[in-house]
Amino acid sequence: MTTVLLKGEELEVARAEVEAVRAAVRGGDYADLLDDLLDVLADGSELEARQAGELDRLLTLALQSGRVRALYGPGGEQAALRAFRKLPTGSELSESAAAVNDALAALDGRAIERLSLTAVGPGSFTLAVATDGPQLSIRLDRQGARVTSVEA
User: Fold this and answer.
1) Residue 128 falls in which region: left (phi positive, over 0), alpha (psi -120 to 50) or beta
2) Who is most buried in 22, 40, 93, 132, counting CB within 10 A?
3) Please, what sign has the CA dihedral across residues 28, 81, 79, 77?
4) Could you tell me how far CA 51 lies from the centroid of its own chain?
């Protein structure tokens, strides 16, 4: 992972979330990591891999729980999402979505005969796309979106 630079509202929301977690933590290595992360965010410096990984975990939780939207509104949530997409998990999710879009592009111009969505487990689904040619199976879960099978 290369370094990550946050700007403007992305930086403000990230700093506020780290400060909130830091206020709840008492001492130890984790508190030291949060202090280090706050120092970098206060300077507006680039995040190193370890710092980016920790901010990734904090923003993931804050976004999934609805905390960011509740505290900072839709604009703050969008800023947090922009920051999240620069971090390891967000970057991986964006890459997985792009890979699925590439696979779906192969269906361009084909007649869609059937679409079906199946619940596989908690937060996990399979989307089946049947066309007059190729058929795709796409898995959607917390790890992202990925093509699980292609049939000609």
Assistant:
1) beta
2) 40
3) negative
4) 16
Long-range contacts at 146-149 (CB < 8 A, ≥ 24 apart): 146/96, 146/99, 146/100, 147/99, 147/100, 147/103
Compute the distance between CA of residue 14 and CA of residue 9 in angstroms, rounded to an integer: 8
What angle in degrees, to the nearest 10, is found between the helix axes of 49-65 and 67-86?
A: 140
Q: Say if CB 17 and CB 58 are below 8 A apart.
A: yes
The dihedral over CA atoms of 25, 30, 31, 33, expressed in degrees to the nearest 10, equals -140
- What pTM, to 2 d.p., does this model score? 0.81
**Predicted confidence pLDDT, tens digits, the chain (152 residues):** 467 889 899 999 999 999 999 888 887 788 888 888 999 888 888 888 889 999 999 999 999 999 999 999 999 999 999 999 999 999 999 999 999 999 999 899 999 999 999 999 999 999 999 999 899 999 999 889 999 999 98
Q: Are 3 and 48 in contact (CB under 8 A)?
A: yes
The residue whose two tokens read 């079906």 is 116
